[in-house]
């Protein structure tokens, strides 16, 4: 039986990979994203996909998006909170309060609001699932990325607490903590760090892999496969867990 899946920020990157594995599993999928062009291209590739263009920093738009998701899906079995921005790469004493608020609002506040709206529907599901996309920066400190790291650590407490609250309703809640994921986004992040450190992109890339057992960036498909497993019957006893997928990264610097 097809499950009803809502994925935030699912138009490209990790979010699209996650949506694809559920679509290929014959589930019914609704994705929202701020990038209308990416969503339209995605729907061309998967005509059964439900899409909605939405700025998740705007809480009123979130409510409209969620209403549309319920109208299209008729409920929710699986929620994947994939929303997130990196924010600026800057020293803590130079980080503006505006930039801090922008990151916290999108990475934490929007995730809270979507989840709060989804909980009544997840309670109606036979075995609801929430998957929160945190980060390696949610288990390690991350110099010059204070707002981002703080928001991702916040998702850990969010996950643990929701797991305890919702377990009696047979809803399981887990967090995935990706390391550096192969693709355009990690290249932008590494370039920003190179600019701050006044060094080369090649040197920053080498340093990024130096304290990591597996010497390559994470394949986004592996993150998507983990989501599919956590949402499957095989994952029904897994909740409240913080699951790194980072090549055994020991530190961020």
Description:
Helices cover about 50% and strands about 15% of the residues. The protein starts with a strand and ends in an 8-residue tail after the last strand. Strands 3-2-1-4-5-6-7 form a seven-stranded parallel beta sheet, with helices on both faces. The chain is α/β, with parallel strands linked by helices and about 250 residues long. It folds into two domains: about 5-180 and about 220-240, Rossmann fold (3-Layer(aba) Sandwich); about 180-215. Strand 2 (about 30-35), helix 2 and strand 3 form a beta-alpha-beta unit. The longest helix is centred in the middle third of the chain and has 28 residues, at about 95-125.
What tags apply to this protein structure?
253 residues, 7 strands, 7-stranded parallel sheet, globular, alpha/beta, Rossmann fold, 2 domains
Q: In a nutshell, what does this entry contain?
A:
The chain is an alpha/beta fold. The protein contains 8 helices and 7 strands. 48% of the residues lie in helices and 14% in strands.
Main beta sheet: strand number and arrangement? 7 strands, parallel
- CATH superfamily grouping of the largest domain: NAD(P)-binding Rossmann-like Domain
Report the mean per-residue pLDDT as an integer: 95
H-E string: EHEHEHEHEHEHHHE
The percent range for strand residues is 5-15%
Described by its quaternary structure, the protein is single chain
**Tell me, what's the shape?**
globular
Strand order of the largest sheet: 3-2-1-4-5-6-7
User: What is the percent of helical residues?
Assistant: 40-55%
Number of domains: 2
* Head-to-tail CA distance between termini: 46 Å
The CATH C-level class name of the largest domain: Alpha Beta
CATH architecture of the largest domain: 3-Layer(aba) Sandwich
Low-confidence stretches: none
Number of helix segments? 8
Q: What is the CATH T-level topology of the largest domain?
A: Rossmann fold
């Amino acid at each position: 039986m097809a499950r009803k899946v809502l994925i935030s920020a699912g138009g490209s990157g990790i979010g699209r990979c996650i949506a694809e594995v559920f679509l290929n599993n014959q589930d019914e999928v609704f994705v929202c994203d701020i990038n209308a062009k990416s969503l339209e291209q995605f729907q061309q590739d998967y005509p059964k996909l439900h899409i909605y263009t939405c700025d998740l920093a705007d809480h009123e738009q979130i409510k409209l998006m969620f209403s549309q998701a319920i109208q299209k899906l008729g409920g929710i079995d699986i929620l994947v909170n994939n929303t997130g921005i990196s924010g600026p790469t800057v020293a803590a004493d130079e980080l503006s309060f505006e930039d801090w608020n922008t990151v916290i609002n999108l990475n934490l506040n929007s995730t809270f609001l979507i989840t709060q709206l989804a909980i009544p529907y997840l309670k109606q599901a036979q075995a609801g699932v929430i998957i929160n996309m945190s980060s390696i920066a949610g288990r390690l400190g991350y110099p010059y990325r204070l707002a981002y790291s703080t928001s991702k650590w916040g998702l850990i407490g969010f996950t643990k607490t929701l797991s305890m609250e919702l377990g009696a309703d047979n809803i399981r809640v887990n967090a995935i903590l990706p390391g550096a994921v192969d693709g355009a986004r990690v290249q932008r992040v590494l370039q920003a760090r190179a600019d701050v450190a006044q060094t080369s992109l090649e040197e920053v890339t080498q340093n990024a892999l130096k304290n990591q057992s597996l010497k390559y960036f994470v394949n986004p498909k592996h993150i998507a496969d983990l989501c599919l497993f956590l949402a499957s019957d095989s994952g029904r006893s897994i909740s409240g867990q913080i699951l790194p997928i980072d090549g055994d990264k020991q530190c961020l610097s």
